[in-house]
Amino acid sequence: NGAPQLFIGMGYNPIYRDLNREERAANYERDFRILCQAGVNHITGWDYDKGYEQDRFDELTLDLAHKYGLGVIMPFYLPPEGDYRDEAFVQDLLKQAKEKVHRFKKHPALRMWGVGNEVLTEMPRAMRPAFGRFYLRLADLFHELDPGHPVIYREAEDLFVPAISMALAASETPRPWLQYGMNVYSLELERILDDWPSQGFERPVFVTEFGAEAYWFGDRALGYQAMWRMIRAHPDYVLGGAPYVWTTEGPEPTDQKWGLMDGNSEPVDDTFEQLAQDWRAEPENRNRNCGR
């Protein structure tokens, strides 16, 4: 709505798709109230990723997210094993994209289209040029159909930033609405963020996933908090971040390691509360209404 907002996110991975509508709604009410009271203002998720079926982000998810003041990065899956040279295959993806945009573009909880996550990381090298050409075509379609919401591509650290930057420059079409998110699970985060202005990418960055090993600081909570403070140390061009991940009961085996909550949305340790102490102190969280 025209006002700047710090991106305080959460990787949101619970599997509620097999529950009935009332059970799903009750779980969202519980989770989103906790997130709002902690100072979170966005959730990001996946519909299918790393070979695992994730959850569904639909009208019910968006309705209850909006109730608790949470914006949603709406996922759109791009398979890394796909043949992006095959016009029939890409036409099917373009058709799916059109349907998704028309279905959700007017929802007030929508903030960005999360088009692809670590696709290049998992893709055969020979397919990357074709994927890059298709991605710009797909991103342009999202923007044409819904110019009011940015598109964001998420990738592992800054590994592919030079290639993506070169592809954007070669297209000669300015796309300031096309954003970049980094997923970082190492102490390289500080170096990467310090170096961002020298990348020549000419746009800000989101840290769309981050996670800390307990041994870095002798305590997992201190590690996550340190990474959040690294993000906040660069306010001119780092628009925020989202820790990975909400629950240990997500679809991926690694969620058992990275999850901040158990299957009942109870904290597994003090990491979530340590982060929340910093989040609540942000100016935009003062006097926030969390659906009460």
Describe the fold and architecture:
This protein has 292 residues and is of the alpha/beta class. 38% of the residues lie in helices and 16% in strands. It is built from 10 helices and 10 strands. It has helices at 21-38, 59-67, 87-104, 119-122, 128-145, 161-171, 189-195, 220-232, 255-258, 271-280; strands at residues 7-8, 42-44, 48-49, 52-53, 71-76, 110-117, 151-156, 178-184, 205-210, 238-243. The chain has an 8-stranded parallel sheet with strand order 1-10-9-8-7-6-5-2. It has a two-stranded antiparallel ribbon with strand order 3-4. The longest helix is centred in the N-terminal third of the chain and has 18 residues, at 21-38. The protein is globular, with a radius of gyration of 18 Å.
Give the helix proportion (percent range): 25-40%
Strand content: 15-25%
Number of strands: 10
Estimated structural class: alpha/beta
Biggest sheet details: 8 strands, parallel
Radius of gyration: 18 Å
Alpha carbon gap, first and last residue: 23 Å
Mean pLDDT figure: 95
Q: Can you list the strand order of the major beta sheet?
A: 1-10-9-8-7-6-5-2
State the low-pLDDT regions, or none: none
- The total count of helices amounts to 10
Shape assignment:
globular
